[in-house]
Amino acid sequence: MTEPEEKIPTDSLKARRLFLRPLEESDAAALFEAVHKSREILKRRLDWISEVHSQEDSLRFIRKAVQEKTDGTGAYFGIFEKRNQELVGVAGLSLLVGQNASRAKLGMWVRSDKQNQGYATEAARSVCEYGFRDLNLHRIYARIDPANRSSRKVLMKLGFRYEGSLRDEKKLNGRWINHECWGFLKDEWKK
Question: Which of 35, 152, 177, 179: disulfide with 143, CB 3.0–4.6 Å?
Fold first, then answer.
């Protein structure tokens, strides 16, 4: 049985089985638990995992996300299941300010025990819609490790286009990795 709609915050982005809302300080414990339980998988793709050792580290991230929203440089959301309001990940846009203010980078992760259920696609679709509709972005882009087939599938399902590869773009876990470049323009968005 699903939870009543009125329990979903009004400032949230909605998807079929999920809602996304700005993270709050009260989410720090759930965020740390999600990161901790998914650490082995997440550290293969995300360099910030090595910096998260406690609930306090998660609280620092939440405070930074709130500040970036205030500054207009980021829009990050906790991804929650509607049926039980459990935190299943984080999705967001890193906004470019100044001359390139009309574009943003999409980033997201879903906890390991909730992967392969379509949550990443639902969440990314909601965040892209928010970016194009509410932030009036012209372009949303993503950078992924070529070995990350799951992220590639999500981007393809949404309509992102492959734009090329950046060689040795990032050092992760002591090795240089390439990044695939994917992009999506507002006029390509299916409303």
Answer: 179
Distance CA 19, CA 152 (A): 23
- Alpha-carbon span 122 to 19, nearest angstrom: 9
**Over 70: is that where the pLDDT of 126 sits?**
yes
In contact, 148 and 114? CB cutoff 8 Å: no
- Look at the block and give the residue holding tokens 């950046």: 166
CB 76 within 8 A of CB 94: no
| Count of beta carbons in the 10 Å neighbourhood of residue 9 | 13
Judge contact between 86 and 80, C-beta under 8 A: yes
**d(C-alpha 73, C-alpha 118), whole Å:** 28
- Secondary structure of residue 101 in the 3-state scheme: coil
Looking at every residue in the chain, the average pLDDT score rounds to 89
d(C-alpha 104, C-alpha 24), whole Å = 22
| pLDDT > 70 fraction of the chain, expressed in percent and rounded | 92
Tell me what pLDDT residue 172 has. Answer: 81
C-alpha angle with apex 28: 15 to 70, nearest 5 degrees?
70
- Rounded to whole angstroms, the Cα distance separating 81 from 76 reads 16
